User: Which sequence fits this backbone?
């Protein structure tokens, strides 16, 4: 009797412990990083319908040459009805890099981020039917990109350039590219508070929202994005509007045309 | 029946064999090759840093001075400097009399530690850059080379070399203060033989590296080096060049690199997409490709696309 009571007590006690770090759906991580379960619960909210999916292409150099600017290309165009793409690293002081809601754009984005150590990088893609599909790749790195001060402070005029945007559209290939001048301080460098762009929203000339990017601390200094549209439906001009955590507004208009 | 001694001997041999295989210490096989009277070259592998090559990827030059050998560039680690010292004493018992660093990249000055009591000459700005960036280079080199780096501490040059006619340990040189590969690149012309030592302003059959490059400045420097018409050129990486090919190859590659990245920026490409570019045959066969092309995309593309893309606000 006593034995069975103890046994059932042990089960009750063990129950919550298992629930806390075991996701509803346990996956076999192709990168075996040891951290994916945690991010599946904390970052994605422990979804009931999730799988690793080779159709989600995440491309990056095998080794990060510049820890402050690691390029990544995420391509989920093999899936229909993509609602959002959560880009994250398994290892780093701040795992969440950004969330892209492609809306009228294609579910594909080129970005750069700051890397802190060698890690798996993931693109978790949620479709309208609330199914998650996760792709990834592995990046080797010397690291330190997240915990260093922004390089902008080496020059005197960073404040004048804050929010400056370079970019344009390419009608034939359905591309939009933009680079936004901003220090993107992570708050992890001594004495420098968090100073980041929160969001960049794209809309057409009628104010119809096309797509939006929610940025987090690991996005690179002077964020640079390539977004992709169906050339047949890409508007001739796209407005960009955003805000940083200090309330600075960011506005620009991307147009097709000759580069400088 | 085998004797007890033979049995023990057999046992010892079978144990000793694997020990011999596993306990081999890391060592550099440095062989100075005579290239001109009184001048030797140690040729590095035309590769990127690896655990296999121990970072022995750089060219070092040895020139006979009055009191010993003048060493141009000291290699990638303390262990490399020690191997240099051993190899040099076989050529001249007095060893190294002076060291020159052509620029502040770690494969060219991390052997300085072994020669810290000698004059170590470099352009003034090279000394400043070596002091500023040495520790972060060191972190990366330990990561790439592991135990090859044991005990290595970056030792910056201790003597400023000003451009012009200079005498180093009784030997006359023309020192050229150039830039483009880094912010301060030293080239030396040996007065006696006319040998041009370019540092990393010139590569031959090994992809040029660009972590601190200014491509326009680099082209200007290459023009100046071509104008010298040197009978022999010792590039920073790759074999001795008696035809000037190192200068034209480096120039052609940098032009191609600039054009490729500019065109990519004009087409709105992201870095990862550019890395899909197939290298032209004349550059694909260079040592350390395509890795160096990928590295160059990271180094150079942000600046190029900022110049190419129009303002949007």
Assistant:
């Amino acid at each position: 009797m006593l034995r069975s009571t103890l046994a059932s007590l042990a089960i009750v006690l063990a129950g919550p412990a298992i629930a806390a770090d075991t996701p509803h759906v346990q996956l076999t991580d192709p990168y075996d990083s040891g951290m994916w379960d945690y991010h599946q619960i904390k970052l994605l909210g422990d979804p009931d319908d999730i799988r690793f999916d080779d159709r989600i292409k995440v491309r990056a150099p095998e080794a990060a040459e510049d820890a402050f600017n690691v390029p990544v290309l995420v391509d989920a165009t093999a899936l229909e009805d993509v609602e959002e793409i959560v880009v994250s690293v398994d290892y780093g002081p701040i795992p969440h890099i950004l969330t892209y809601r492609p809306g009228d754009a294609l579910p594909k984005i080129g970005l750069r981020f700051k890397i802190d150590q060698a890690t798996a990088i993931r693109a978790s893609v949620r479709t309208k039917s609330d199914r998650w599909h996760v792709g990834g790749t592995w990046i080797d790195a010397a690291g330190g990109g997240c915990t260093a001060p922004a390089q902008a402070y080496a020059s005197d005029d960073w404040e004048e350039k804050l929010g400056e945007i370079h970019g344009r559209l390419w009608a034939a290939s359905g591309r939009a590219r933009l680079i936004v001048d901003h220090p993107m301080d992570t708050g992890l460098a001594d004495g420098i508070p968090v100073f980041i762009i929160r969001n960049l929203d794209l809309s057409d000339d009628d104010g119809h929202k096309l797509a939006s990017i929610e940025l987090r601390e690991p996005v690179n200094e002077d964020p640079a994005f390539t977004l992709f549209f169906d050339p047949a439906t890409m508007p001739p001009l796209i407005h960009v509007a955003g805000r940083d955590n200090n309330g600075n507004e960011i506005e620009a208009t991307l147009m097709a045309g000759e580069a400088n | 029946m085998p004797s007890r001694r033979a049995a023990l001997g057999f046992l010892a041999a079978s144990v000793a064999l694997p020990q011999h295989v596993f306990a081999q210490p890391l060592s550099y096989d440095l062989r100075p090759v005579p290239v001109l009277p009184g001048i030797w070259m140690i040729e590095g592998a035309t590769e990127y840093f690896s655990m296999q090559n121990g970072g022995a990827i750089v060219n070092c030059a040895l020139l006979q001075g009055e009191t010993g050998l003048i060493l141009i560039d000291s290699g990638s680690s303390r262990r490399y400097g020690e191997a240099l010292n051993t190899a040099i004493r076989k050529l001249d018992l007095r060893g190294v009399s002076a060291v020159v660093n052509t620029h502040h990249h770690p494969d060219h000055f991390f052997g300085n530690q072994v020669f810290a009591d000698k004059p170590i000459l470099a352009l003034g700005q090279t000394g400043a850059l070596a002091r500023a960036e040495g520790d972060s280079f060191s972190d990366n080199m330990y990561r790439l080379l592991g135990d090859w780096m044991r005990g290595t501490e970056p030792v910056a040059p201790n003597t400023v070399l000003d451009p012009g006619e200079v005498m180093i340990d009784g030997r006359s040189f023309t020192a050229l203060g150039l830039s483009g590969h880094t912010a301060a690149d030293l080239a030396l012309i040996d007065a006696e033989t006319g040998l041009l030592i370019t540092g990393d302003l010139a590569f031959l059959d090994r992809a040029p590296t660009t972590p601190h490059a200014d491509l326009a400045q680099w082209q200007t420097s290459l023009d100046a080096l071509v104008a010298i018409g040197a009978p022999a050129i010792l590039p920073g990486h790759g074999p001795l060049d008696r035809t000037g090919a190192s200068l034209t190859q480096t120039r052609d590659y940098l032009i191609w690199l600039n054009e490729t990245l500019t065109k990519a920026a004009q087409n709105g490409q992201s870095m990862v997409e550019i890395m899909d570019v197939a290298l032209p045959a004349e550059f694909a066969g260079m040592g350390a490709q395509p890795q160096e092309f990928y590295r160059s995309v990271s180094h150079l593309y942000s600046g190029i696309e900022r110049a190419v893309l129009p303002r949007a606000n």
Summary: DSSP finds nine helices and twelve strands in chain B. Chain B touches chain A at residues 139-140, 143, 211, 265-273, 275, 294-295, 297-299, 302, 305-313 (CB under 8 Å).
